[in-house]
Amino acid sequence: MKKIAESLTAFLGKGGCALKENVLKNSGSVTVYPDSIHALGNAAVLMCRDDRQKYLLITAAGQKDIPAGFEGETVILDNKAVALIGELSPANAAALRKYFPWTAPKSLRNVRTTVGCGDRLGLATVGHVRAAAKVQVSPVLAQQSIRELTMTGRTFRKVVDDACFLVFAADYQDGYGADGDHLKTIKDIDSALAAGMPMITLDLSDVMNAAAGDWDAAKIDEAFAKLPEELQSLVLKDYADKEFVLGTEVTVKLDELTAKRCAVMYTAALDFAFEVYEHLKAARGDEFDLEISIDETSSPTLPSHHLFIVRELRRRKVEFSSLAPRFIGEFQKAIDYIGDLDEFDRQFKVHALIAQNYGNYKISVHSGSDKFAVYPTVGRETRHYLHLKTAGTSWLEAVTVIAIKDPALYRDMHQCALDNVNNMLKLYHITADFNKIPALSGLSDSELPALMEMPEARQLLHINYGPILTGNLRERFFEAMHKFEADYDARIEAHFDKHLSLLGVPAKN
Questions:
Q1: Which of 108, 360, 368, 435 is the most exposed place for a label (fewest CB within 10 A)?
Q2: pTM score, two decimals?
């Protein structure tokens, strides 16, 4: 690393191209991220790695030329220049965001197509941006829920910082988002905002009266009569026995009972959405993306309910970027769509038309990882006004790398998953029959990677990321991922290429 720093000082002031050309000739045993090499005043800033970890390296002609805010070990070089070797710390992430603003997440509210790239490891960003850079899409690189933070021992700040460093390493300057996913309280929203996350996915499941979806007419009438009289009058006037035309052959009708049911089910949730919107606006002005999530329910979102929710959000003047209905069929973790594709196509078209008729917000597809069968419909019917949310698929690409490169570690991870699966099933809804997974004792090392093409094994490893990442396998796992970083980047890139291609996202001009 010292040799790299010394070689750079002779080229300070000659621009980034000269710095990059020179450092690649003198990197030696240390690997330099070539796209990270940037001139900054009379200094050069770059990222590199040895066989243990990644570093930030700043080199300058003298101490006074080291930009303020960076921290690390100061080394006086043989040519009297100075180098600062820093860990990937919060302070250094903050300094990168200060001097290179494109390393900070930003609002993507005006971007047509966005993809959530949930990264539970803080290692997937390079592969994500390589795929995103090819097409007309903006990635949401820092995306985590409270459940994921708890299961991995991370914080919102750590999630954003990890993305920041790898955005810098890849020199990705097209802009990316950060999403506090499935948040339910103002307190959790504030935690995400404090970490610089411009996107908030508001999960309304706790404030919806979902049970009213199954109530009989008498019970709905009783509950409706308890709502404010002004609201009752509005609902009956604007929705009861009304027909809403969405296209030449598509209409959505609400009879009186449906109108009352929607008011009973969603009024409290819509009022909370308004409260959150006002809170976000006070905190960030217009620089935020609010996603409304109504997908965490046991039954699909009816088009009539979707329409009611959107119209009532508009009436409250809530500005939202995307909305996630609960679609028909099964969107289980880590595997393809389960259900009637023809019926999905028919219903999804109506949901997309509602979005197009009421503000052209993005339809958000949650648990969107690997739902290859429905991607052509999703891309076509939304006209790419779309947010696709993925998470576990990037973790499973890491598992696949381990299965290929370190079979012994994979076997231990697989056993850890089996040992913990009953507890994890309390947190994740899946219907896999784990008895179909063959015993590892009967499989050769070369047969292990094929397990990650088997739905049952994929789901087993998917839901058990927490025990693996926080237990006694953690150190071995991250050592292996550091060693096989290039393999992981390549797998992530190829996997997201497939996602984006099937969605039909246009290539960049």
A1: 435
A2: 0.95
